[in-house]
Amino acid sequence: MPKPSEEKARPAKNEEKAIQTPAKADGQFKITEDQIMKKRQGKSISVNFLARVEGEGGLMVKIQGGQVTEARLNIFEPPRFFEAFLRGRKFNEAPDITARICGICPVAYQMSSINAMENLMGVQVERSIRELRRLLYFGEWIESHALHIFLLHAPDFLGLPDALAMAKDHGPLVEKALRLKKIGNSIINLLGGREIHPINVRVGGFFKVLTRARLQSLISELSWARDFSIEAVHWTSQLHFPDFEMPYEYVALQHPEEYAILDGRLVSTSGLNIEAQDYENYFVEEQVPHSHALHSTLKDRGQYFVGPLARFNLNFDRLCAAAKKAAKNAKIEPPCRNPFKSIMVRAIETLHACDESLGIIEHYEPPARAASDIRVGPGTGYGCTEAPRGILYHRYDLDSNGIILNAKIVPPTSQNQKTMENDLLHFVQKNLALPKEQLTWRCEQAIRNYDPCISCATHFLKLSVVENPEE
Amino acid sequence: MPSTRRPKLAVWKFASCDGCQLSLLDCEDELLQVAEVIEIANFPEASRAVVRGPYDLSLVEGSITTPHDAERIHKVRRASKFLVTIGACATSGGIQALRNFADVNQYIPLVYASPETIQVLNKSTPIADHVFVDFQLRGCPINKRQLVEVLSAFLNGRKPNTPPHSVCIECKRQGTVCVMGNAGAHCLGPVTQAGCGALCPSYRRSCYGCFGPKETPNTHSLSQWWSSHGMMNADICRAYRGFNAYAEAFRRESEAREK
Lengths: 471, 259
Known about the structure:
Strand order of the largest sheet of chain B: 2-1-3-4-6
Structural class of chain A: alpha+beta
Radius of gyration of chain B: 20 Å
CATH topology of the largest domain in chain A: Cytochrome-c3 Hydrogenase, chain B
Largest interface: A-B, 78 and 70 residues
Largest sheet of chain A: 3 strands, antiparallel
Largest sheet of chain B: 5 strands, parallel
CATH architecture of the largest domain in chain A: Orthogonal Bundle
Shape of chain B: globular
CATH class of the largest domain in chain B: Alpha Beta
Oligomer: heterodimer
Number of helices of chain A: 16
Number of domains of chain A: 2
Order of helices and strands of chain A: HEEEHHHHHHEEHHEEEHEEHHHEEEHHHE
């Protein structure tokens, strides 16, 4: 098994810019730690451009007198104002428009917006439509998780800058990873028409549904993917995980029978148990100056954690048997409080997604109609689904012609922002003795634990306008 | 003489969804081969290692929406021998260019304005409005086959072969039944550039213009046709105001129908 080798660390030149401030002698350190602390009395770790995440962000940690005083995830991705220009659009445009918030998880946006519209219109889709949607969504989980596990996150554990460097020493593994990723994409491709911004989903169902034979064309590759996922769980379990645990409040959807993806109640490890449409009564968003994305918190309780680790901890008993067994063999069980282990949980979820997908295909009977009839009317609709990175909440107010009056979208990354910053703060405090280059890299890794999607997080309505210079 | 040095590739992001640069990683079958002939020198979404410029080829995703980005694109241009824009945001301003049609001063009270937040330009504009662009690859998202074609053309010193004709041609070639026959269908296929493989009509859905205007599009005629089949001006206007709303032909037509 490959071991992480810190020696190979070669952080990019323009990524890292340390601001050294003069050391202050404030005499508050133990003598034994004096030497180490002298080096670390006043400094900051900063990564101006965080790599291997979707979108643009950086991180900054301030250390003074041996204490971490501040940790920030800086998000400077330009805001795109989706909630503003959704106003005045037709209800049936929301799935295609909101998909453009994120090229990595467009299916998640389509599903949450469709759920919200169908919730408003009181549409109940037939079972096979629901199953096809779950299959499409699992395709996105497989694609997104494979991308993150092997191409974005694993290089950190191996001390390599990227997956292409990984391909030199771990060629067969990278090839298998790409094959796994491709299988996720082929599901989306087949059901949705294309991998990025699929075109086949609509409020009420699909534009066109597939025959059994078409779906069955996925079986052989998916069976391979299921087997490889078991290998992936084992492989990730052999990585070296920093000793780091935090008392998180995990939040995820929960479904009575399924490992929730499309719908369910919102539950947490601290006893939250609400209907998804009550989301805004329990969660609030606030603005912080260093981020173009709003921070979400639970009212009166503060930060919380969404995503694979939250789902694993809350819904473990609803995982398929193979996934539970793989978890047991890998010696991971809920509650897991080490965010670095999210890479294992993504592998377990990938296994579950492959297994469930095979089950859906096996039992598939084409629906009588591709889409249910819908009746447009005024009202408010709510939708919440489990995107690869965690819960994605949508709310829409429509007028009597089906025109959107208001839209609210809360993506998973903005919900995790506070938790990410808190992780940074505590992680750096615990690891001050590490050489700076290593510590900087570890900080990046700590952020990548969350697979942050910064493009998603900054669709927000925050703006000060200056005129275009040429005008 | 051909050089043995691998050309250096950089991928840059402006305001966008990341989908077009993901298309490069979505070339699962070609990615490792591409990396053998091209040095992926600066691609933050995939790697924390950065090789210094100048770069032989820059792929630029996203539109210009902030004063900072309006400066940054010039640095990118200076560091690049060839600059290719990828996707609707970079070639026409993208979905975020919908704000170009709004009265920004009325927009502000709707949104959370705060003095310490970043500054945003009142328009989202394509890269070619700011710097010289060597080639524009259309699509929301781009077609990854066309992306491989662009890379291959670049490596071989030829012009990429991306047809400028309409989606209709693709439908006819595939034998897809025309969706305009359906009453009320407002297919943008006749005025939209090919490249997606006429995907939507093959799923019995109207084209919604992901690849932007084709060469010499007759948008006026299409709108007349829609009007004569009962489509309201507000709906016609919305149809053109999608992911390529600020592309010249679509912009003009939507403005004509706005009144």
